[in-house]
Write a structure and sequence with these properties.
The complex is a heterodimer of chains A (about 110) and B (about 110). Chain A has about 110 residues and is mainly β. Chain A is built from no helices and eleven strands. In chain A, strands 2, 4, 5, 6, 9, 10 and 11 form a seven-stranded mixed beta sheet that branches. In chain A, strands 1-3-8-7 form a four-stranded antiparallel beta sheet, with no helix packed on it. Chain A starts with a strand and ends with a strand. Helix content of chain B is about 0%, strand content about 55%. In chain B, a hairpin with a 6-residue loop joins strand 4 and strand 5. In chain B, the strands form two sheets. In chain B, strands 2, 4, 5, 9, 10 and 11 form a six-stranded mixed beta sheet that branches. Chain B contains no helices and eleven strands. The radius of gyration of chain B is 13 Å and the shape is globular. The chains are: A mainly beta (about 110), B mainly beta (about 110).
């Protein structure tokens, strides 16, 4: 089992460019999440998908969109990148939100916006 | 609003010097308290889940405990390879995990 995989590992964008971060899990989990992690700020939830076909905003959704493509895949899109979106992005998955199950994380995407 | 606060922010220990990390939580109807380890440049790695006050979990030199207001991660006789950031998270079960900002642990040989 690969667990949670993310692509790309690194990306450099210019201000105004767009890109999509990809995430896939092979644990048959129902719920998936996108976080960003910045020094001193901890992990902040951007969007999550409790189950296939649903998505909800987290703490910092502005400037991002998501798509739950199927049960395995959950993508994060930056339509017009800004320097404030320079961060490390983590995808995670869990069996189901309501049962308080742990989340399992991918290796992260390091994004720099110049 | 659910909140998780970790202390200290950073901790420096000599090899073999036992200590504890604290995680205070304010969650209405706790459904799970989680500990993670994060190495530099990597994603958080799940360590433990605690569900009710009085519960304890152990793994090698780590032991996690839970009360009604806080959780402790006890590190016994740490080694340099235990150096990492340790994250605590909690959930009421209706929303995703709420994470603390972490404790950065350094163990010096």
């Amino acid at each position: 089992n690969a667990g949670v995989t993310q692509t790309p590992k690194f990306q450099v964008l210019k201000t105004g460019q767009s890109m999509t971060l990809q995430c896939a899990q092979d644990m048959n989990h129902n719920s998936m999440y996108w976080y960003r992690q910045d020094p001193g700020m901890g992990l902040r939830l951007i969007y999550y998908s409790a189950s296939e076909g649903t998505t909800d905003k987290g703490e910092v959704p502005n400037g991002y969109n998501v798509s739950r493509l199927n049960k395995r895949e959950f993508s994060l899109r930056l339509e017009s990148a800004a320097p404030s979106q320079t961060s490390v992005y983590f995808c995670a998955s869990s069996e189901i939100i309501r049962q308080g199950r742990p989340q399992y994380f991918g290796p992260g995407t390091r994004l720099t916006v110049t | 609003e659910d909140q998780v606060t970790q202390s200290p922010e950073a901790l420096r220990l000599q090899e073999g010097e036992s200590s504890s990390l604290n995680c205070s939580y304010t969650v209405s109807g706790l459904r799970g308290l989680f500990w993670y380890r994060q190495d530099p440049g990597k994603g958080p790695e799940f360590l433990f889940t605690l569900y009710s006050a009085g519960e304890e979990k152990e793994k090698e030199r780590l032991k996690a405990t839970l009360t009604k207001k806080e959780s402790f991660l006890h590190i016994t006789a740490p080694k340099p390879e235990d150096s990492a950031t340790y994250l605590c998270a909690a959930t009421s079960g209706n929303t995703p995990l709420v994470f603390g900002k972490g404790t950065r642990l350094s163990v010096i040989a």
